[in-house]
């Protein structure tokens, strides 16, 4: 496990030994079939999304053609979704819900994760098992009771009514990722601080938090993506554009009829809401991979 | 970020040199535990409570104790067993394909060549595309008139309008979105295998295939197992794809979907809650296996 949870900076170093060995076996040149395999992976991963983008650049009759390159590319669909108040509002809702949930999860979760990673007390195993099992909860199990409860206490169809249940999954996820990251931070510095008379809490704040910044960033990114993507709660606990986040709003675009689906605007909206996540992936690829594999791989 | 819990230790720090380790641990862990109790444990208990009651459709707020009636109704409803079958078929088929494709992708990515980082970024794209967007995307690929699948395969199949085609589209969409994720998990496992082992096997004259079967697969087993169970847990909860692609028509109603439709659309709270609890139990059985599998992992994290 330790080998894969090492934060990103060490990634290259960890990879290079097997890479060298491989080069001996495969020879200095990559064989031709490898390039075919790589091309297949790239097409598999990117082509469907390219298709979605190409569709979003089409209007009118072009939308019913299956040409892979838009004959008359236009940004008209993008213009129209940003003139749609419901969509813009949904975008705002999504940003608020994701940012607030992530901030809360990181703030509360980092303390818990630090204690689990560093302090000595009983019951750690059970807390970790509990935390991990909650990440596997089906959202439906809390959506049904909250659907009623939120109406009773008046927070149905509000942003807070979505932030709370998103926290159900975001908090355990954050704790679990952060425990693995905190474990990777060398104890020496912290112990030096303790010897110099700092309290555990000061050691956490002044030594661990700055060193854990990459881990905190990773947890925040994964948490943000998970909340941004959340759909079941979004669709169940809202009833109007007032609180509806983008995934739910887009589903309502499609819901109306089987025949007249406004594909131009739907695809433009779909591309638009995917872009923040794709940018995150481009910027933080190593960090995300490290976070995803932390805890998931046993060894 | 620190503001919230600085308050607790600060007065203490003046008196002594800080909290005892155990007290500090308690202070740091309890906010999360309280929050988890409120946002996870309480709703689940309330779901069980709801599932033991019957709620009037006409008079809001009117309810009566129903015992296990909702459960016997759920378990004797063929719709529930259809949803169970659909969910299981979906999970087994999609996770199998994800594993095979993910393994192939991981092995390919592990081979030495330049631009591995770039390839890993490419592979993360499907993972980053929202599930709802994935559903819309595959609908536009399969559905006429613009969808090109029928152009390639010939014929005029209505993919999302019949059984089992609709489920096949949902499986394809899921495989596209998560096989790359599986590849990354397996790749992480591959990178923990020391290169010297291969070197030694090569010196001993093992062929590429022998090295794969005798070294890679056995050493990869733990990583694969965890990835498998992890993905199965996710697949059992499937909701977004069938909701957007078919609304559960043509044999695509899953456990989460039947529960959601029962309480949110048909407003049958008791039965809906019973479906939710049954889904929860199904997932938790697999989760139990998962936690046991990664038990060593958790124990490692819990060590001092």
In helices, the fraction of residues of chain B equals over 70%
User: What is the C-alpha radius of gyration of chain A, as a whole number of Å?
Assistant: 23 Å
Strand order of the largest sheet of chain B: 1-2
- Enter the CATH topology name of the largest domain in chain B: MetI-like fold
Q: What does the oligomeric state look like here?
A: heterodimer
Helical fraction of chain A equals: over 70%
Q: Structural class, from helix and strand content of chain B?
A: mainly alpha
CATH superfamily grouping of chain A: MetI-like
Reported for the largest beta sheet of chain A, the result is: none
- The tally of structural domains of chain A comes to 1
The beta-strand count of chain B equals 2
**Low-confidence regions of chain B:** 1-17
- Tell me the name of the CATH homologous superfamily of the largest domain in chain B: MetI-like
Q: Please report the distance between the alpha carbons of the first and last residues of chain B.
A: 26 Å
CATH architecture of the largest domain in chain B: Orthogonal Bundle
Rg of chain B: 25 Å
Give the total of beta strands of chain A: 0
How many H/I helices of chain B? 15
Strand content of chain B: under 5%
CATH architecture of chain A: Orthogonal Bundle
The average pLDDT value of chain A, as a whole number, equals 82
